[in-house]
Design brief:
mainly alpha
Amino acid sequence: MIYPEKIKAKQTNKIIKILMSVSVVIALILFIINKLTTPNIPWSALTNAGILYVWIIVMYSIKRNINIAGHVLLQLLALSVLTVYIDYLLGKLGWSVNIAIPIMIMIANFTMLVLTIVSYKKYMKYAIYQLIIVLFSMLPVIFVTEHIVQDKTLSIIATCISLLNLVICLVLCSKEIKEAIIRKFHF
């Protein structure tokens, strides 16, 4: 079987620099077209935010030995910021905090649950990311208490799912967690 030749790190860096330059040029062209054709509609800001999002994910993914749970957390945070930004550009309609963020929190928690079930012996690798996602999942509670959201249903469901997911993960991996605590703190 013939395998393709492995690209060297120097070539990879060169390719990344070229593609990043192309992305910047495309972003500038889109900005200029937007200002010349429809200056009152900021559609180029939306497309440029998408380009920036893609590069954040690509650069994060290029790093070696990155934890899958880290990708889940990064996606949750980056997409949340992106949707709030898009919502703001479209006139603060509120769909980002009412619908998008709670749904993304539910998906992130489901993904973390699947990771825990599939590789429960590696749960300690995912534990810190799980805790950060749970903390991030408390945002909808703040949105509800501060009356930022109009419909509380998805926010409450997302927070409950997050807490339930944390409990399930702790129950499934209680032995591993106990062993890790004993190893770390010499009990």
